[in-house]
Amino acid sequence: MTVPVARLSSFYLFYYAALGAFTPYWSLFLTARGMSVTAISVMMGLWYATRVIAPSTWTSLAAASARPIRLLRVGCVLTLLSFAAFLLPLPQPWMYPAMVVFCFFYNAVMPQFESITLTHLGSDSHRYGLIRVWGSLGFIAVVTLFGWLIEGDGTASRAGLLPWMMLPLFALLVASAFSNHYARGIGKTDGDASGFWQIVRRPPVLAFFLAAFMEQLSFGPYYTFFSVYMDHHGYRTSTLGLLWTIGVVFEVGVFFTIGRFFRRYDASWMLLIALVSSCLRWAVTALFPENLPVMLLAQTAHALGFAAFFAAAMQMLATYFPGRLNGHGQGLLYGFSSGVGGVLGALIAGQLWKIDDGRTAFLAGSGFALVGALLCFFALSLPLIRARRSAAHTP
């Protein structure tokens, strides 16, 4: 069966291109609309809050549907339509429900599409990185281009035009959704959730989800306060941009090459490597924030802590949850790890930040990653070592 690489890649390209505009610049748009810092923090909190419920809700609906591809297309259309509300001069009280609706659908569709990609790849799931990398490329391109467009001529920001700039990206996402479909042979019975929780209760599967949760928890200080932390230590805005970009650039390299690793080794080993790298990264960030060469080196670890971890997680989900059961697995990973883990990580980081302006928060992030690494080693990697030794001693 031929894998529709171009069509699958286009969805990642447009989805993460839009995210490349949303993540760094949406707060600037909200500022241009006259919102206060407190109001903006609430608005951005809605993004993470919807990640808790949207993925699992949507993937469950897809698994129960006789035509799940229709749900993906409906979700993308509703993402476009709900986002179009920001083109209007909405009063501030109306901005909150508009944000909830938009974030719900935007967060809902990607876990389902991850499942679609894996149904096409089948036993070739090691090729996932070659498709997912287009999302990273789209993210980098839009972050760079939109930064230049928004900055304008230096006299006035164009952040208020951001929704008009992003709308074509969501329109292209809709077009990509209508060009994609599930692989043949994935029937409705494959989505039966009756055995899903039996799989989740297996010790290795539980350990996997808990390790993913700890990894996302460890990223809380980074996603919430890294720029503030670097600014506090005297870094210029241009240097901050370099520190953010270098991690994504190395991320692209990992997605291009990681398939070779998965052809030779179990994905749980990469999961362990990623967790250890995050543990070291956050410790270095806490202890040596004023050393630019060290910080640049630490940022390259994003390639392992995010890209390699994510690719390994997709491999393991494909193994644990075959067929359309994979949609349930994707929903749980996104909702529990990215959703609950993201919200708790941000809240914990905010509380620890008051102690010493960030150092303790990043050390806590290092500790969370270490706990995840220990879980991964004892529940996933160590059994592989024992099984290999047992096989070697079998006559």
Write structural notes for this entry:
This protein is mainly alpha-helical and 395 residues long. The chain has two domains: 1-181, Growth Hormone, Chain: A (Up-down Bundle), CATH 1.20.1250.20; 195-388, MFS general substrate transporter like domains (Growth Hormone, Chain: A). Helices cover 82% and strands 0% of the residues. It has helices spanning 5-32, 37-64, 68-84, 92-121, 128-151, 162-179, 196-200, 203-218, 220-232, 237-264, 267-287, 292-300, 302-320, 325-356, 359-392. Keywords: Cell inner membrane, Cell membrane, Membrane, Transmembrane, Transmembrane helix, Transport. This is MFS transporter. Its main location: membrane.
Let me know the CATH homologous superfamily of the largest domain. Answer: MFS general substrate transporter like domains
Number of strands: 0
Return the average pLDDT rounded to an integer: 87
Strand content: under 5%
Helix content: over 70%
Distance linking N and C termini: 39 Å
In short:
One of its GO terms (molecular function) is lactose:proton symporter activity. This protein has 395 residues and is an all-alpha fold. It contains 15 helices and no strands.
Core attributes:
single chain, 395 residues, mainly alpha, Growth Hormone, Chain: A, 2 domains, 82% helix
Helices and strands in order:
Elements: H1 5-32, H2 37-64, H3 68-84, H4 92-121, H5 128-151, H6 162-179, H7 196-200, H8 203-218, H9 220-232, H10 237-264, H11 267-287, H12 292-300, H13 302-320, H14 325-356, H15 359-392
Helix pairs in contact: 1-5, 1-6, 2-3, 2-4, 2-14, 3-4, 3-6, 4-14, 5-10, 8-13, 8-14, 8-15, 9-14, 10-12, 10-13, 11-12, 11-13, 11-15, 14-15
